[in-house]
TrEMBL record, chains A, B:
The gene is LOC102520257. Residues 711-831 form the Transferrin receptor-like dimerisation domain. This is N-acetylated-alpha-linked acidic dipeptidase 2. Its cofactor is Zn(2+). Keywords: Carboxypeptidase, Cell membrane, Dipeptidase, Glycoprotein, Hydrolase, Membrane, Metal-binding, Metalloprotease, Multifunctional enzyme, Protease, Signal-anchor, Transmembrane, Transmembrane helix, Zinc.
Amino acid sequence: MDVAGQQEDCLLPLQGFLSPLQNPRGSQGPGVWGRFPLASGRSWRAGAGLCARSAAAEVGGDLGVPRVTGRALSALPRSRTSHRRPASPAQPRRSHGQVQGSSAPVDVLGCSAGLFPGRISGWLSKPLKETATSVGPHQNVRGELLSEMKAENIKSFLRSFTALPHLAGTEQNLLLAKKIQTQWKEFGLDSADLVHYDVLLSYPNMTNANYISVMDEHGIEIFKTSYLEPPPEGYENVTNIVPPYNAFSPQGVPEGELVYVNYARTEDFFKLEREMNISCTGKIVIARYGKIFRGNKVKNAMLAGAIGIILYSDPADYSAPGVQPYPKGWNLPGTTAQRGNVLNLNGAGDPLTPGYPAKEYTFRLDVEDGVGIPQIPVHPIGYNDAEVLLRYLGGAAPPDASWKGSLDVDYNIGPGFTGHGSFRKVKMHVHNINKITRIYDVIGTIRGSVEPDRYVILGGHRDAWVFGGIDPTSGAAGLQEVVQSFGKLMSRGWRPRRTIIFASWDAEEFGLLGSTEWAEENVKTLQERGVAYINADSSIEGNYTLRVDCTPLLFQLVYKLTKEISSPDDGFESKSLYESWLEKDPSPENKTLPRISKLGSGSDFEAYFQRLGIASGRARYTKNRKTDTYSSYPMYHTIYETFELVEKFYDPTFSKQLAVAQLRGALVYELADSQIIPFNVQDYAKALQNYATSIYNLAKKHDQELRDHGVSFDALFSAVRNFSEAASDFHRRLAGVDLNNPTAVRIVNDQLMLLERAFIDPLGLPGRPFYRHIIFAPSSHNKYAGESFPGIFDAMFDIENKADPRSAWAEVKKQISIATFTIQAAAGTLKELL
Amino acid sequence: MDVAGQQEDCLLPLQGFLSPLQNPRGSQGPGVWGRFPLASGRSWRAGAGLCARSAAAEVGGDLGVPRVTGRALSALPRSRTSHRRPASPAQPRRSHGQVQGSSAPVDVLGCSAGLFPGRISGWLSKPLKETATSVGPHQNVRGELLSEMKAENIKSFLRSFTALPHLAGTEQNLLLAKKIQTQWKEFGLDSADLVHYDVLLSYPNMTNANYISVMDEHGIEIFKTSYLEPPPEGYENVTNIVPPYNAFSPQGVPEGELVYVNYARTEDFFKLEREMNISCTGKIVIARYGKIFRGNKVKNAMLAGAIGIILYSDPADYSAPGVQPYPKGWNLPGTTAQRGNVLNLNGAGDPLTPGYPAKEYTFRLDVEDGVGIPQIPVHPIGYNDAEVLLRYLGGAAPPDASWKGSLDVDYNIGPGFTGHGSFRKVKMHVHNINKITRIYDVIGTIRGSVEPDRYVILGGHRDAWVFGGIDPTSGAAGLQEVVQSFGKLMSRGWRPRRTIIFASWDAEEFGLLGSTEWAEENVKTLQERGVAYINADSSIEGNYTLRVDCTPLLFQLVYKLTKEISSPDDGFESKSLYESWLEKDPSPENKTLPRISKLGSGSDFEAYFQRLGIASGRARYTKNRKTDTYSSYPMYHTIYETFELVEKFYDPTFSKQLAVAQLRGALVYELADSQIIPFNVQDYAKALQNYATSIYNLAKKHDQELRDHGVSFDALFSAVRNFSEAASDFHRRLAGVDLNNPTAVRIVNDQLMLLERAFIDPLGLPGRPFYRHIIFAPSSHNKYAGESFPGIFDAMFDIENKADPRSAWAEVKKQISIATFTIQAAAGTLKELL
């Protein structure tokens, strides 16, 4: 909306506003912008921006591979040519010292466990338990795997992988892919391949920078936000740093009055529209980052009629008390802004090829029809700039303290500025460019010895907004160490029962694209053969305790394995990870167990779990949920996510990253090598009972309407009971299965593998065809959070305000019916016959 | 449209029109209607209509079970309690004489093969070939199964099952279900259960009969069509006969001018609208039955704007030259009309519960929102009545001879009557009632000894419009004999490797409801475990030669088995079924093979094949496609489909029904008991190459547009080549698989089982979410016919007339891309690893 020139009031503009091209507190203007060398062609690849030195460092010479102690890499036999025939299933597994293909004597006790010799315990001292889920010298192999993994190696990988930016679609990220591929081959994987897709990415326009301005009544820019963050010390000469932007924002220069919308959550807009009677139609809204996924904020703003949305990080959400801003501490400086995509893909992957892999032959939608691309401009700014915009907002006062951040402003809502500035408008300048760009996943495999057609996947992304010190490289470095350690086991002749697939995904930051496209390309085999997916994104988002989100099938395995891994926490020196985790974050429902949360989205497990129904889990170290009130870690998606941030402030000994990598690696090991897949079905039954109770309790708030509209949850509870009985029967049968009968073993394993699949409905959730899991979905109001019974929840959401109560309650009934059917059908898959 | 009274012309009405309540040629009026005792309650169940005698005959006493020669039924051991442990996979299968659980010496030579001792050959004399697909004494068991099956038994079942009407939703059909269940238990199945669903059915209103009238200009009915068919001899006292009607026609009394639309095919309406400039908007159309599924006719009429549609059977389509009408011959009498549903479900099953089983807890759509229910009244009439309506049609002459039937009328198009009758209108009176009604499937099982979790299904429907002499009972009787014969094998201790499921479906005539609901209820296990589905609808629609429609995976098995079954044809006394079939109906593409057609729909395999991607096939005896120009068999869906029709005219020796039952049974046997599933993947590759060539040839007619819009089939052909290579590699690997390694066997069997599944796209075809097979679908213009690459075909259909050529060709490109992806992905499933 262009209202410049309507009235004249050029005296005393908003105090504190600065002249164009001058920024507060030292952030850098467009003079620096020229250092961001966007290639003029299809992407930023090649060109002057990539110096010969860095290219050499990436593909050869010092590959950044940590030194292997004790064994030379060159001595590894090439496993591709040494596939063992599966052992006769009736015979016990070979004991470790008898493994074929390894001429060296085997170090059963893991003499190279050096780094934490007193802490990697449990698996060494515990007696072998022979159960249906663990036979033979299985635990020794797991112990060996864990002891192979070294914090020092993770540190070395992290340093190597964060030396340069690795934005998706750039030459530098391709070179890192090749480096990882090369290392995986050296580690001894059976294969390591690059797989490419041509997906829609979004970059800032290199000749026309994005910014937000304040326009006076003559149409003169009297304030401009900064383009770039000051680079951290030691990185001053690094090129190819993308400035803060919101990927997939459309181009646009909307101008209008500003409205402050708090976090731009659904409830924030309800508050504005329903209680405060403030309309955002035709306005530019400013929202603080935090609480929910930024794409949901943008969608909410669109639904509210806004013509643009500015996102900023308030210190209240991105600073901890008593902590200095980077580089002196780990708090957010005011000059930096959080990057991030603002798509509402709902699991579609590449916006132009929903449902299908973005290959050369694939039909592409026009960008206007692309999935989830917002229709209003979006741009992120730091809190220094935000403070300028917010300071003179007029209109209503904030409704309560929850609307106030910690800047020195009133947090008035608007619309528009107060007093003398009331004719001034905010103008957004967004010139991002969408480009179909080639991305590269690295896919490595260890072929299973007995069931090569059963896959356990460990995947995490490689692409980063800039250096990716935490996101994703704390995870990618750990993944590299997991792969190296599996390679060492293989060098001694070991090979897992099932196939292990390692994945270094590309373009996660642009909407989980690399992982989703690969899932789409391999959908048929993954549906048929996928046992589990373990995610390996950032391994730390804090350093307080463990955080796990996973399918209920994995609860027991996570408990068991965390008991076998040493706690990295101060004060828990001789205790297990499980013990520190339980003490620091007990489950709210059952204090005798540590908390495990539902899977939402926001990382690469999404396609595998929410679309395909492959049992999935993720684990990382996190903050203290009780005392740390900031949203995520402050430096999230900024230029300051460096190696030094991790090394100085988060995990100086790398022991937390090691513990997380050990847990991820041990999960993969157990899932791939246990004769019986270590899933617990009864935990799913309990979880279903809890979720059903929750949703029923929510519904009971509308007791009268339930009766008026004949809405009953009885069938749902009945199905849950049936499932529970089927689960008990199944475990009874499992306990008696003849482990010497390979077909009988495969039959129960098929049931275990396919149980998660049984919760998938090909019709998808209402309006979200690629979220197909009926029990879990990313919340419709916050993609990051997991919602149980999402179909029912969404049907009931805000039901008292729906225009047609009859059809609204009919939808609730329909969703209860679908959930009932799905659970009933899943119970059916646990039966032996029909 | 009511135009009565506009003008006066009451002299000399249409010559030959009869007064109300009087019908030509002896068909019966409403006086007879009262004999059709519709229960006043929820359905026709119970009540006076079902006499005590018939109830007794159905549930006890003389169960109609054919006498078993040689062995007493009571001597059958109960297999439920005698499950064998699977034999050690490393040992050769037991030879036949050593089978456990049978104390009687085994009749290897099948001494009870009596009926055709000289003709059941092949499998007795052929040497055992040891291949990957047949090991051990497998062929002997198959031979024994075939020799157990007796024409005399099929005859006896047919007589028993056709004694009374068995319309879906009636008490009589429930009693038949119970009778079949009882017999299956007696035959020795491990289980036989009734499974119910509450689906939407449609019946005539018992107090307000349907008919068509001609109204004069004063609004007086001067002609009415008949309500009922004269019952066949011997059936005069049978009650519960539903009069001819079109199920799911909405209620309505539209009145308007009549237009003759030939077969109401897409091309017929194109001719009328585009070439003859005749609009059907606001008219009642009359179409002859034949060529395409009647539901497509109704849909086409709706799209053309018609307000009602009358369907009739023209003698040109339902009579053979020189044949007498029933009862003297098998031609259609003029007093009878073809019943049938007119839904366009596109595979949804119950119209109110698309995608989910119609159980007690299931959410139901309002009938107005029900899937596929037409919006205009439809009613069928016989050709005596049709001749009256057609005789005085005015307007344009028929465009060519293909629009002329063989009634003694001009086949003018209309609209409206000619000459003095031009003010007269046709009025339809349709009062059908939709009712949610309980239906019953019978599900029987033989538990597999080695892989109980692998299912081979043999299913056919039980419900009939009236007596169902041909449709479906010629098939249901054969199914009963197959079950009995498997039971005999079981009584000797045999048990198949995989589980066999027998199904007697209900409500097929109302839209394949019983089979689709069961598929919906068991979708998860069927997806995971379904090896194959063999259909057992009518086994004869003619008596000339065999007709087979099946997945390419089954071609080789069908060739092989038909070589092992004796031909029932005159003149082929010592030859195989394969030989007579090949001679009478060679493949148009390859004269050295018999013709096998693509699967379309119109019977219960639909949900299994088109929605779930379970390899499927059907077989029946058919007419001579070269010389027999009539559509289907003349008495189709009339009251004259009796036991006598079959016995006197179609298959007096029941040898054709035996041959069909033997083929169906042998298919099931081979699929259930072969160590390696007997599918041939290379035939799928060849079929894909043929279909791709066909669709490309069709596209080439638009050569210029292909170039203008950048449409290429290269990727599709490339994917087909990749599939062919993968198929060859797979068969090479299959030939070398270690048959003593149960896991290795299961791995390749999983690939075979799941290959058809790989062609399923959960997103479905455009506008047809439950037709999910990308390679095959029922034609959008004729549900009965199979279309290959249906997505591409439909996108290209009539493309020269599409409003927006750019978007129309974009859709073609999209569909090529989807087909390419699907084939590529299916090829991926044939690979060992990724």
